[in-house]
TrEMBL record:
Top-level taxon of the source organism: Bacteria
Keywords annotated in UniProt: Cell membrane, Membrane, Transmembrane, Transmembrane helix
Lineage of producing organism: Bacteria, Pseudomonadati, Pseudomonadota, Betaproteobacteria, Burkholderiales
Matches recorded under Pfam families: LapA_dom
Compositional bias annotation for Basic and acidic residues: 82-104
Coiled-coil region(s): none
Keyword Transmembrane: yes
Residue ranges of every copy of the Lipopolysaccharide assembly protein A domain listed in the record: 22-85
Region described as Disordered: 74-104
Protein name: Putative integral membrane protein
GO cellular component: plasma membrane
Chain ranges passing through the membrane: 40-65
Species of provenance: Glaciimonas immobilis
Presence of the UniProt keyword Membrane in the record: yes
InterPro entries (alphabetical): LapA_dom
Length: 104
């Protein structure tokens, strides 16, 4: 399985590297207020891909913290229930009769 994933990674790298080599022409990217960026197409695409990945991770951050908070609450509730159950189990065990202890 490790070999297959490495082969796929090498194939994808070669495809993306070939894409980068074929798209080196200079492009102009226009923004508002007549602001422009000049650069190779592949670098501009890479920059926007990276910015999108960062924005995606930032968008997932609140959900991640919410899930962690819920997991912590559930873990505390579970450990509390386990302590209560252990206490009930220990309370239900009857101590030995004093005469039985003397005979041993």
């Amino acid at each position: 399985m490790k070999l297959i994933s490495r082969i796929i990674a090498v194939i994808l790298f070669l495809i993306f590297f070939g894409f980068a080599l074929k798209n080196t022409q200079e492009v102009t990217l226009g923004f508002f207020l007549n602001y422009e960026i000049h650069g190779p197409l592949v670098l501009i695409l890479l920059g926007f891909f990276g910015a999108g990945a960062i924005l995606g991770v930032l968008a997932m951050t609140p959900a991640l913290f919410r899930h962690r908070r819920n997991a912590t609450k559930s873990q505390k509730a579970l450990s509390s229930l386990q302590r209560e159950r252990e206490a009930e189990r220990l309370a239900s065990i009857e101590p030995p009769h004093p005469d039985a202890v003397r005979n041993i």
